[in-house]
């Protein structure tokens, strides 16, 4: 049953990612910079940090929500495509900002929300 719940949660996460991307693509600024991917990955890092801090390592919610929902919601592959595109277009400054915000921001949010999650238990 956990596999089924994980698959359902993954579908929900993917649908939410699609919805957020569609909303943000309606702005002209998104065409110049992948704001939706940054937002999605930062929210995913914060949410997974909170969950990981709040539940034990073997808790079923970690698999269902952590692997399913946040696995479907966040998008490393799109992050990689956006990064490669900026590199090919020689947009080095934009690429550096994108990498720093996504990588350092995700780590910092995960760590912060992990600590918050630990205090919820």
From TrEMBL:
Its main location: membrane. Keywords: Cell membrane, Ion channel, Ion transport, Membrane, Metal-binding, Sodium, Transmembrane, Transmembrane helix, Transport. It is found in: Cell membrane. The keyword Metal-binding applies. It comes from the Bacteria. One of its GO terms (molecular function) is fluoride channel activity. GO terms for biological process: cellular detoxification of fluoride. Na(+) binds at residues 71, 74. Pfam families: CRCB. InterPro entries: FluC. The chain crosses the membrane at residues 6-23, 35-55, 61-83, 95-116. GO terms for cellular component: plasma membrane. It catalyses: fluoride(in) = fluoride(out). It is a multi-pass membrane protein. Na(+) is not transported, but it plays an essential structural role and its presence is essential for fluoride channel function. NCBIfam families: crcB. Belongs to the fluoride channel Fluc/FEX (TC 1.A.43) family. Fluoride-specific ion channel. Important for reducing fluoride concentration in the cell, thus reducing its toxicity. This is Fluoride-specific ion channel FluC. It comes from Bacillus pumilus (strain SAFR-032). The lineage of its organism: Bacteria, Bacillati, Bacillota, Bacilli, Bacillales. The gene is fluC.
């Amino acid at each position: 049953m956990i596999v089924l719940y994980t698959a359902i949660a993954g579908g929900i996460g993917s649908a939410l990612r699609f919805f957020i991307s569609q909303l943000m693509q309606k702005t002209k600024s998104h065409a110049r910079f992948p704001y939706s991917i940054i937002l999605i990955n930062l929210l995913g890092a914060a949410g997974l940090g909170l969950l990981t801090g709040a539940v034990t390592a073997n808790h079923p919610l970690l698999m269902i929500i952590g692997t399913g929902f946040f696995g479907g919601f966040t998008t490393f592959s799109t992050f990689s495509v956006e990064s490669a595109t900026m590199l090919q277009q020689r947009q080095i400054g934009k690429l550096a900002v994108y990498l720093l915000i996504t990588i350092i921001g995700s780590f910092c949010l995960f760590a912060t929300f992990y600590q918050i999650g630990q205090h919820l238990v």
